[in-house]
From TrEMBL:
Record localization: Membrane
InterPro entries for this protein: MFS (IPR011701), MFS_dom (IPR020846), MFS_trans_sf (IPR036259), Proton-linked_MCT (IPR050327)
GO terms assigned for molecular function: monocarboxylic acid transmembrane transporter activity
Segments traversing the membrane: 20-39, 45-69, 176-194, 200-218, 230-255
Name by which UniProt lists this protein: Major facilitator superfamily (MFS) profile domain-containing protein
Every Major facilitator superfamily (MFS) profile domain range: 104-257
Keyword terms: Membrane, Transmembrane, Transmembrane helix
Protein source organism: Ridgeia piscesae (Tubeworm)
Species classification: Eukaryota, Metazoa, Spiralia, Lophotrochozoa, Annelida
Topology of this chain in the membrane: Multi-pass membrane protein
Length: 257
């Protein structure tokens, strides 16, 4: 549900796209803070299997939200003349010879598959740099429980405020600047964190990190659409999430956990 929801929001909104992305992504940070405690409660009350069943039932409600998404343009109804008959040598008719319908269906399937796996987006150096940076950003997303609360709070604040800031007339055409600043800030904090030993400094660093990370997570699809355009956005976003998955997979391995 995560990736399609961001793609749909980017297609639905234009003028207030940053605000819409900030509001829609704020729920994920709240869920990241609430769901672990909810899972612990469900496992204590209903056991492992029962807790997973209840959690699955709660997650299944996402189908209701997905059903609310509607295409902006009315889908084109295929031509019902899918069956074509051809006269035979004896003057008869070849029954139910599928010509036009089969070709059109195969063509639609080929176009859909090509759109899902459009590796040509990696030829654009801007997308390559952007996707790799997002993968490296999530590679270091490992925090202690002490800093989790401050990160969760400032993450929500960063996501919400970024929408209004990025849609401001003076920032809209240069919103890659605050986004790049947030990336730089998060990178500096990651490098500085190993040298911090004071609990107060860790708490403050985590709060600043959460705000910057919230801006990145809320507005990355917005920046990606500005770079690639709406036509190639779906494929580019899928490839970016793929790069992030590699970062999440390699992060704990490189950290030795």
């Amino acid at each position: 549900m995560f990736a399609p929801s961001l793609v749909v929001v980017n297609e639905y909104f234009d003028k207030k796209r940053s605000v819409a992305l900030g509001l829609s992504s704020a729920g994920s940070s709240v869920g990241a803070f609430v769901v672990p405690h909810l899972m612990e409660f469900l496992f204590d009350q209903f056991g492992y299997s029962g807790g997973l069943l209840v959690l699955g039932a709660i997650t299944y409600n996402g189908c209701v939200s997905g059903a609310l998404y509607r295409p902006l343009d009315k889908p084109v109804t295929p031509n019902p003349a899918a069956m074509v008959t051809a006269p035979t040598s004896d003057g008869g008719q070849a029954a139910d010879v599928v010509v036009v319908g089969t070709r059109s269906r195969l063509r639609r399937v080929a176009i859909a598959v090509d759109g899902l796996f459009d590796f040509s987006v990696w030829r654009d150096w801007r997308f390559a740099v952007f996707a790799v940076s997002q993968g490296l950003c999530l590679m270091c997303l490992e925090t202690s429980t002490f800093a989790l609360s401050s990160i969760a709070v400032t993450d929500v604040i960063g996501r919400l405020l970024s929408g209004f800031v990025f849609d401001h007339p003076s920032v809209r055409d240069r919103r890659y600047c605050p986004f790049s600043f947030s990336m730089l800030l998060v990178s500096i904090l990651m490098l500085w964190w190993p040298f911090v030993d004071s609990p107060l400094a860790i708490f403050i660093s985590a709060a600043v990190y959460g705000a910057g990370f919230g801006v990145i997570m809320a507005q990355r699809s917005n920046i990606l659409r500005d770079l690639m355009g709406i036509e190639r956005f779906s494929s580019a976003f899928g490839m970016m999430v793929f790069a992030q998955g590699i970062g999440v997979f390699l992060g704990p391995l490189l950290a030795g956990e």
